[in-house]
Amino acid sequence: MFGEGSISTVVVSSNPLSREGLKAMLRATRYSVEAEALNVSEAVLRLPERAGRMLILVASSGREGETIPVDLAQRCGETKLVLLINREDCATIPEDLCEAASAIVDQTVSTETLQQILELIFSGLTVQMPGISARWKPRPR
Question: What is the pTM of this model?
Fold first, then answer.
């Protein structure tokens, strides 16, 4: 691992099997799953106020009509949003999710690569795998 200290995590997916797989993958990492949610709006509501470093990890097909109801930076300290999507669905991901994301990653990424991406975003980088979304504009830091 690159960084130190536990990071509270909310795992988001409308698919229970997907949520369980992500939680299992995170068990051996510093990303402590504190909650799970069916969609991003529900996940944001589950975040504690000004809780410091947080991760929202979203496995989404892009078809759930996801939106960000509040500005993550205002709601919590250092909150990172990571979208795991299907390449075919990248055009259907809402623009506000793309703009809020610290990383947009293909769902076929390996466990090791995903863990490295999580470390990179908490070091201040944004990550976009090639070909994921021409619309994605990283938010200003």
Answer: 0.81
